[in-house]
Sequence to fold (159 residues):
Amino acid sequence: MTDKQEFEAKFWKSIRADMTVMVGTAGVDPRPMAAQFDGERKTIYFFTAKDTEIAENLTRARKATLVYAARKHDLFATLHGTLRIDNDRKTVDRLWNRFVAAWFEKGKDDPKLCLLRFEPADAQIWLDASSLVAGVKMFLGLGDPKQDYADSVARVSLK
Fold:
């Protein structure tokens, strides 16, 4: 069985490589957003425009859900935490890149620019249990697929 630290390490490695997630809050359906990371911190940032539904809904910090599926479909996760607006200029400067710049005509000084900060509290992480080895075990009648599946899921605290 994989321990929770291994699940968490695989999650952070995967999400930092893929970066696309779905983010939603109460009253705002999840939408695809590009995750930004500030060093090794567990905080996840998102650039958006002030006039988007998600930004307009954040008059205060709100509970939020982040859903992630790895590009290779070998890891899936649902995170719960807090989402708020954090337009700290130093953070904007550190996270700014050419992909973000393409969305804001006036660059970092664009009046529509809004930086969202997601502080994860906990996660449920699934690792793909349908590997070649698992397939061979099923074919040969070795092992219990339900147990293999149970061993590929973990609830992890991210605080």
User: Anything to note?
Assistant: The longest strand covers residues 113-127. Residues 47 and 115 are 5 Å apart (CA to CA). The mean pLDDT is 88. The domain at 4-157 is CATH 2.30.110.10 (Pnp Oxidase; Chain A).
